[in-house]
Design goal:
Pfam families: PBP_dimer (PF03717), Transpeptidase (PF00905). This protein is an alpha+beta fold. The chain is built from 22 helices and 23 strands. A hairpin with a 5-residue loop joins strand 18 and strand 19.
Length: 641
């Protein structure tokens, strides 16, 4: 037994020595033979790619004046890594910061969150290894307090950064659009030109390679690829004309009493370019700067008037009597004499229903020129009844560009509607069950007994015969009522084509795109979408008739005292009736009547008659554009005639 003990001890020493030799060999292999490979792998595991956002390009008006640009504004950044290494993970620092900025603590905390599939905005979509902007547009005083007290704000910095600036405030908000966080740490266009020309404006982001330690602290920068600034978009918008249009529209909506919204469009009839485009109510695009709160977002999208909706391109209304240029052209094409004599009684009976003139006025015998001037309905009812067997009026409406989007370079454009027998049948199939249910149950929630009875009768008729295209449908179609729907931009385009001799453009807001150094990258030219299927003589006849409307027709009151001798305006009023609601007011126009340069269209929802709200607004726009009635001209001299 005693002899075996030294042997065992020797064996243990041998085993320990062998293990030690193996360990030394492994260390030599790792550190010497494979040292470079493991070093590279260790470094690679901690290399992070950080996106460097590009400076966004500008949007300019027709005269080179900025509508949207960038300005240096103090921005407060929080280093997420540094905050999370603090004992309370940065909560006390954020609370002190919220107090200094006068902002809710939760707002700053939410901006620090990393975005994920189930994370709601606001959150941070960029790299966690770069400073996160938690407050933009901070005042110089607050920023200096933070910068001068680093011991109170560890992990917090304040420095100037470019933010989107609108030097003319909310002007042209629906044209410009707004910016909101995208998939990365930069902002992207979400509406208007900011969205349409996003790829031009955003530039090309750069990148930075940084090495971080196991705690996420940045150790050094390995390399950087600089960002390329975005291009400049030059538009055909004239900022001065835009301001005139917005003031006139806002005043028209306010003065109309029960009006809730409206829109206005100014087109260059010779080129198809958009000179001004406005909608009411509007909003300030800078409300999105730094992230929008839920309350503000609800107000913009579902509050009174839904200000975010660009009604000039997305709003839909029956065009009422402004539509009669379509019906006149259709009647002429069908063989009716433009200078023939037609009776305009107070009402016209179709089947078992009488269709009344506006106000029930009996206007006597007249030609179609006078019918347009005084806006006789019953003459067009007669045409509709006689043409009802075909699609002559629908074909003409489509020839004027209705029923399809204009193709304008703004997002979300509505196509409008040109109803016909096929559409009515399809719509009936979609709504039959709802109509039949309402025919049985009525409208108990409706407090007005007469209105409830009317709605129930309509539902019963739709349930039983809603698929039939009737002579009454044709009559409503002929005067732009019933199921006809257009956008203000569609109507402006149609009147621009009537004014310019028949060329139907696809309107454009942008005029050219220029690089950061000012070099021209490309021109944006409005394409020709087609030609009106109307002879030149008919177009001239209608232009002549519309020139009389502000003088002795339905817009005479609105244009009383206007210097038509200096600027002859041609136009057409429209009063779209809706059961149980105020009428929608329209006025579509172009000028100078003899040699048209611009088309101006205004609609005021629930604004009353066409001559009551829309026509006065159009008068104000023409006065402002041309410097009439004591106003300074918004248009430069070379663009007035």
């Amino acid at each position: 037994m005693r002899r075996s003990q030294p042997f065992r001890l020797l064996l243990a020493h041998v085993l320990v020595a062998a293990l030690f030799l193996v360990l030394l060999g492994r260390l030599w292999q790792v550190q010497i033979l494979d040292g470079e490979r493991y070093t590279a792998a260790a470094v690679a595991d901690h290399v992070r790619h950080v996106v460097v956002p590009a400076v966004r390009g500008r949007i300019l008006d027709d005269r080179g004046r900025p509508l949207a640009r960038n300005k240096a504004a103090m921005t407060v950044f929080a280093d997420r890594v540094a905050l999370t290494r603090q004992p309370d993970r940065g909560r006390a620092t954020l609370r002190e910061l919220a107090k200094a900025l006068g902002r809710p603590y939760k707002d700053l905390q939410d901006r620090m969150r990393l975005c994920g599939p189930r994370t709601r905005q606001p959150c941070w979509a960029g790299s966690p290894y770069e400073p996160i902007p938690v407050a933009e547009g901070v005042g110089e005083r607050e920023a200096m307090q933070i910068a001068e007290r680093p011991e109170d704000f560890p992990g917090i910095t304040a420095e100037p950064r470019p933010v989107r600036d609108h030097p003319r405030g909310a002007l042209a908000a629906h044209v410009l659009g707004y910016l909101a966080p995208g998939d990365s740490n930069d902002l992207v266009g979400k509406d208007g030109l900011e969205a349409t020309y996003e790829s031009d404006l955003r530039g090309r982001p750069g990148s930075r390679k940084v090495v971080v330690d196991s705690a996420g602290q940045v150790l050094r920068t390995l390399g950087e690829q600089p960002a390329t600034p975005g291009a400049t978009v030059v538009t055909s918008i004239d900022a001065d004309v835009q301001a005139v249009v917005e003031r006139a529209l806002e005043r028209a909506v306010r003065k109309a009493g029960k009006a809730d919204s409206g829109a206005a469009v100014v087109l260059d009839v010779r080129t198809g370019r958009v000179v001004a485009l406005a909608a009411a109510p509007s909003y300030d695009p800078e409300i999105w700067t730094g992230g929008i709160g839920e309350a503000d977002y609800r107000r913009l999208t579902s509050g009174a008037g839904s200000p975010l909706v660009s009604r000039a391109v997305q709003g839909l209304w029956p065009p009422a009597s402004t539509w009669k240029v379509v019906s006149t052209a259709a009647a002429a094409k069908a063989g009716y004499d433009l200078r023939g004599r037609y009776d305009c009684p107070g009402s016209y009976r179709i089947g078992d229903r009488s269709f009344r003139n506006y106000g029930g006025a009996d206007l006597g015998v007249m030609d179609l020129r006078r019918a347009l001037v005084v806006s006789c309905d019953t003459i067009f009812y007669r045409f509709a009844e006689r043409l009802q067997g075909g699609t002559a009026m629908q074909d003409m409406a489509r020839g004027f560009g209705f029923g399809v989007a204009t193709g304008v370079d703004l997002p979300g454009e509505a196509a409008g509607r040109v109803p016909d027998p096929a559409w009515k049948k399809a719509y009936w199939k979609q709504t039959k069950d709802r109509s039949c249910r309402a025919a049985r149950t009525g409208y108990p929630q409706e407090k007005d007994a007469a209105r409830a009875a009317y709605l129930k009768a309509v539902a019963a008729e739709n349930c039983a015969h809603g698929y039939v295209w009737t002579a009454g449908d044709a009559a409503n179609f002929s005067i732009g009522q019933g199921d006809v729907l257009v956008t203000p931009l569609q109507l402006a385009r149609a009147y621009a084509a009537l004014a310019n001799g028949g060329t139907l453009f696809s309107p454009r807001v942008a005029k050219e795109v220029r690089g950061p150094d000012g070099t021209l990258l490309r021109e944006v030219t409005p394409p020709v979408a087609g030609r009106l299927p109307v002879p030149a003589a008919t177009l001239e006849f209608m232009r002549d008739a519309l020139a009389e409307v502000p003088r002795s027709g339905t817009a005479a009151g609105a244009f009383d005292g206007f210097p038509l001798g200096k600027l002859p305006v041609a136009g057409k009023t429209g009063t779209a009736e809706a059961y149980g609601a105020e009428d929608t007011s329209w006025f579509a126009s172009f000028a100078p009547a003899g040699k048209p340069r611009y088309a101006v269209v205004v609609v005021v929802s629930r604004g009353g008659g066409g001559g009551e709200a829309a026509a006065p607004a159009v008068r104000e726009i023409w006065s402002g554009m041309y410097g009439l009635e004591g106003r300074k001209p918004a248009l430069p001299r070379d663009k007035r005639w």
